[in-house]
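LAB NOTEBOOK - FOLDING QUEUE
OPERATOR: T.R.
BATCH SIZE: 2
PURPOSE: Compare the predicted structure-token outputs for two unrelated chains run back to back under identical settings.
PRIORITY: normal
REVIEWER: second-year student, initials M.K.

ITEM 1
FIELD SEQUENCE / FIELD STRUCTURE:
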Amino acid sequence: MLKKKTVILGVTGSIAAYRACDIIGALRREEIDVQAVLTKEAAEFITPLSLQTLSKNKVITDMFALPEKWDPVHTSIADKAGLVLIAPATANIIGKLANGICDDLLTCVVFATKAPVLIAPAMNEKMYEHKIVQANIARLKEIGYKFVGPIKGYLACGHVAEGHIAETARIVKEAKRLLK
């Protein structure tokens, strides 16, 4: 078992944000602690209460919220990470990370951690195939970030194409591998 391991789960603004619930449940069944970081855009798709109920941890949404105790939130979260998993990952978050943009809690956590980073993209196939998105993914892979998916599946736009978030079991399997 992977006791005492913490996955920081970054949830970004995609219709696939609902899959974060499945991922949290699967990780918790493996006795892995999950700390969810919800972007402002993700909160348009899923609530902090849902993620908090499943993870049994407070969901962090705002880097500037007054802390209960003195502790810079982005670095304290980064320090406890055994893995940072971003699922779903939008083209926006991939672009920010690839270009050093650190303008929200999730990007600050990623840049402040020494833990491995696993990214599970989810987006329209035209966005995923775009040369800039592919260049950003290549850049992140070059510096050691890992990716799982996307896969061919039904997309919110009605297309069946590559861009669907990877299956939960595959994401969790890769997360467990990186936690070792």
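ITEM 2
FIELD SEQUENCE / FIELD STRUCTURE:
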Amino acid sequence: MQHGVTEFLVGQYGAFDRMAAKAVIQLKEKYPDVALTLLRAYHPGERKVELPDGFDGSLYPEGQETVPKRLAIVRANQYAVKHSGYLIAYAWQPGSNARKVVEGAGKAMHKTVINECFRE
């Protein structure tokens, strides 16, 4: 792929994460320069997680070790938004932390939101 997005950062804690990872893995078959990185919310020493097939590596955000466990996924998502140029998200549940992160990305953080799926 000469132009476009070639690096994808995907979490591991929900159906959307699994669907997104599967889509990127399929994309990698056609475009071998695409990279898929697993976003780790919890310290790898505390929660051992094997790198799933199709992933090229993992990322545990700097400073994440100081975050209370109950906020780890939220903070990891915030890190991803802050360090990404685009966001592909599915956040439909009113009041959910994921939805707040997506809404914030589109507004305050001025990110390009590719797929903003909100249900009322």
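REVIEWER COMMENT (ITEM 2): Residues 7-117 form a domain with the Rossmann fold fold (CATH 3.40.50.450).
FOLLOW-UP: none requested
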